[in-house]
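Session log. Operator J.P. requested a structure for one protein chain; no other inputs attached. Running the standard single-chain path with token output.
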Amino acid sequence: MADLTDRFADAYAQWQEELAERAQDPEWVEWASFMRASLHSFFTEVVPDMPDDPWGEEGLRHAEQAALRLYPDIRSAEPSATPQNFATSDPMHRYLGEVFIRRLDGRWVNLDADDGHGPDPAVGLPYTAEATSVRVLLNQAADQRTGDVWLTEYRRHVEQHGAWVAAGRPGYLDWVRVHGDPIAGLTPEDVGAGDDAEDTGGGMTQDEREYAELQRHYAELEADPVWQEWLAGMEAGLDRFFAEVVPDMPADRFGLEGVRHAEAAALRIFPDMDAANPRTSPQDAGTIDAFHRYLGEVFVRNFEGRWRYADVSDTYGRLPVVELPYDLEPVTLLTLLTSVVGRRTGEELSTTFGYQQETYGQWVEAGRPAYPAWAEIEFAKLFG
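Structure written below.
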């Protein structure tokens, strides 16, 4: 049993290494560089009448109907059929992938097996070893013509994603050992676990319970229209920060040098904490928001953070925060900015950056464990 578990773990590790290598392929890098432009084409040219919530069930249903109008058969859905096909199918592929990425914690992966056909975009998901090929999804829709191919597949993943979140977002091998991988057709017995696996559903530690509860909270708020609208304005908000709010940022905008420069600018712009609070200074809400977006992206880009929407307090209600994979407490950007302005040391952000850099490095060195496991490691360091 242990030998089978080890073989499965080795095979999964090898698969992840292959995906990491393919991510460096020049053709893949070039394909990924056109993500923003191609998604823009999808929403403005390919399917310009998408509903208000394009990334959920309503959007998927609407997009599949558009695909049926564009592609009368499976052959016509192939990007290589004609240049005109590529102009519509490539944006469609990217849209499909982004739905799974934004709602189900996915990431883009390249399934290209050096067969001469170039990159094969797919979405890797944390609860299954089976990547979702967006080309296959589009071909299935054009071939089956039921109008619900994408929604059916999406709902299947939503169910598995929900169970994975409720379990505390475990690493894939920990997850499959207890729960199997229904998407890939694997049971715990298939990977050498089965009855020997420990089901922590009824015996979760306090860290596991708190983490699972927090993940459910994030998941419940993810589809909030206010939040989705705010996320959609990310690029514009960052552009404003660099063009208008702090136009003289150094080359290393999101690193330590950029953080120091941004803090100095914040002290010039905001004379006190009230001036950095949109509730007390609504006339400067745009500038404050731009600072929040920049500060959040520092954590996202350097420390694998994720933008989240959270009920911060009774006073402020729901606010954008950044979840860090090694900390239960998210970074609240409003609190961070007002703290910088209130203390006025000129070193608040650089000190925070240094602390996060150290902790992040330790977490990476430990193998990027899920938060509950990381909390146990930290506890053992403190108390032996």
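Operator note: Residues 2-196 form one domain.
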